[in-house]
Amino acid sequence: MSLGYPSHQPQRTASILIVDDDAQIRQLVARFLRTSGFTVHTARDGEEMNARLAESHVDLIVLDLMLPGRSGLELCREYGGAIQAKF
Question: 41: which strand partners?
Answer without folding.
Answer: 17
